[in-house]
Amino acid sequence: MFVLAFQALLVRVALALPLNSPLLPSYDYIIVGGGPAGLTVANRLSEDPSVNVLLLEAGPPDGEQPDVEMPGLVGQDITSIYNWNLSTVPQTHLNDQPRSLPQGRGLGGGTLINGMLWNRGGIGDYEMWAQLNNDSSWSWDGLLPYFMKSETFTPVTNVEEELQYSIEYDPNVHGYAGPVNVSYPNFIWNQSAYFFAALNELGVPTAFDPNTGEIAGASFLPLDLDPQDEMRSSADKAYYNPYVSRPNLYVSTGQYVTQILFAGTTPNTNASTVTTGDNSVGQAAFLTAIGVEFAASANSGRQNVTATREVIVAAGALHSPQLLMLSGIGPASQLQAQGIPVNINLPGVGQNLQDHGQVWCWYPYHNNSFSNPTELTNNHTFGADAWIAFWANATGPFTTPAIEGVAFPSLPYIVDGSTAIAETASSQSPDQYLAAGTDPTVIAGYKQQLPLLIQALSSPTRAAYEILNANDGVLTVSNMRPFSRGSVTLNSPEPFDPPVINPRYCSNPVDAQVLVAAMLFNQRLIKTSSLSEMDPIQIYPPPNSTDEELVEYIGDKLQTEYHPSGTNAMMPLALGGVVSPELLVYGTSNLRVVDSSIMPMLPAAHLQAVVYGIAEKVCNNSEYIRRTVLIQFFPSP
């Protein structure tokens, strides 16, 4: 059985790689970058046989290695060839140390290396988007059809597990014919039941179905998991592999887009005269994108390919603003400092960077009557048996990641001082904790975001943070409502240099206050009668830490939860926005952005399902994307 399973894997690899055919000089649509957004748009555009679609991806094809395919190996090889291995600049509030910021690189993008968790966030998250843009199509109700369109949902089939872990679902909010397989693993770590029971003891309810948009509480999240073989359902397997026979869909890997090409470009250093409520950048004519320049490496010759329709940047929150700036679209002062001619002075490009900052907390379980995920690597016999079970019949602990059950508590559920935290936020002026020199339009945008953040933080029905249960005593906490804002700027005019990434983690003190409250709640959680059965011993943060010591612990331990966003925000231009509700870059006639960078505010979610929904939405609207070229750019590692 093991041999047959491995042979089947090799066959799938062979079928998935008819890549790198000679390129035509021109395409209707050019798609550069094969992440979830890029592959979704490539798939939907190539449904029309009358057009030619080119997808250029900087990374390698998905080789479907075990450390990518097997849920039980999630996070084991985070520095693989499928990761850009980026880092931030030293963080002032994190002991002046940089932080690693993994991002997916390859055909499949982040869906090759993420934690596989599938959730959409809360209803209120998208009401904020709609309110900021005065556009109800970006509300929960407006987006739900596209969330559903991306998935084929398979409910849990084990009745005993369904009852034990309160895994329920609303059939009216799930899709059953989409490209991405979404399901539950056939193995669940026993510790999850005790985690849920402990949360219930402290008043945190179990969410009925978190993908209804009512997420405040504990839930067992589905995964992007194929129920037939219990392997990762990545973007390439969902949106590309089944469609490789389309004669109008071209894919070329190992190609780096270095800039977007425009017709008749006349640099205009005064191109963004903004007036309140006006989304015009004040230039005589809109820029028209006509193609891209690309190269295989920094030492390779650069080539051009033209596109007869639109250009859409789908490079993610770190690389898409870099590509815009390299192409002369961004804050004029930054472009001029790098010697780049200014095509459009757009101050919001690269600003408004947000991320879910997470803090690792360890209370190792000393009840050895249950196996735990660490034994897959630390116990040779257990790991070997589990490996055989996975490849022989798709069963056992390798069918699930270590983190299955999570919780999204609201702040009023977990801390009496939630009002005090909200009052701290309410007392702030909009620019008080933004970076010095922030453009007035970006400040104006944050001024609009601030009351929405406070409202979300204060609500008993809105998630304030997340607890990630790793089933071995690790209860990581992650801030779902970051008040801090950072930036992505150019390191140099050389496209193969990585951008300067500065999330400014915890630059707003409210973020640390929320995480302190979350860690204090963890201490109550491990003392409940339910989790006490696991015999947890608190190691990190150290027992009896004061609030001040917990803030110091945050400075030492906070990391990314891998959800950077917001750097090409979908907001009015007068609020520091970069794209309109149609995702059109202000000042251009045919350049759009489709990725996590357009999110004006982070939802309380793991972002893959959200990104798929955004891409499905833009493809579904004929007014948005009938003349589309999709561009995704990645610099060399």
Q: Can you walk through the features of this model?
A:
With 637 residues, the protein is of the alpha/beta class. The chain has a single domain, classed as 2-Layer Sandwich (Glucose Oxidase, domain 3), CATH 3.30.560. Helix content is 29%, strand content 14%. It has 19 helices and 26 strands. β16, α10 and β17 form a beta-alpha-beta unit. α4 runs antiparallel to α15, α5 crosses α19 and α16 packs across α18. The protein is globular, with a radius of gyration of 24 Å. The two termini are 39 Å apart. The N terminus and C terminus are likely disordered.
The first-level CATH class name: Alpha Beta
Mean pLDDT: 90
Alpha plus pi helix count: 19
The radius of gyration computed from the alpha-carbon positions, rounded to a whole number of angstroms, is 24 Å
Major sheet summary line: 6 strands, antiparallel
Q: What portion of residues is helical?
A: 25-40%
Task: Provide the β-strand percentage band.
Answer: 5-15%
**CATH architecture heading:** 2-Layer Sandwich
The count of strands amounts to 26
Total domains: 1
How far apart the termini lie comes to 39 Å
Oligomer: single chain
Structural class: alpha/beta
Examine the coordinates and then state which fold CATH places here, giving the name of the CATH topology.
Glucose Oxidase, domain 3
Gross geometry: globular
Give a short overview.
29% of the residues lie in helices and 14% in strands. It is an alpha/beta fold and 637 residues long.
